[in-house]
Amino acid sequence: MNLYGHKVNQLARNFTKKLNEKISLLGLYSLQWAIILYLHEKKQCIQIQLCKYLGVEAPTVTRTLTRMEEMGLVIRNEGKDKRERLIKLTEKAYEMFPKWHQAAQDLKIEAISNIDRD
């Protein structure tokens, strides 16, 4: 019986749990961090792009973006039509990014520290 898929899923769940423990101290959770990483790289996008990238349904992304907007981390502006909303990071998010990134990097280093290089 092949359990690789299950083991990869469990590893990802454990990593996400540990990530939440680290970045929640800085006011974020993993889905919010994933959105921030995407927007940091892309500069702006529409919500459907986020849904596709994250593999998450629109209502979940809408709720998360609303919370992030209330926290002052994202701005949603009208796009080409009233249904399309352009999303981008705020200055506050750009200022906090190095702290969040460092916490994520620290976890990555911790996670791979006991893995044999070979």
From TrEMBL:
Keyword match Transcription: yes
Pfam families named in the record: MarR_2
Residue ranges of domain HTH marR-type in the record: 1-118
Tree of life domain: Bacteria
Signal peptide (residue range): none
Record protein name field: MarR family transcriptional regulator
Record keywords: DNA-binding, Transcription, Transcription regulation
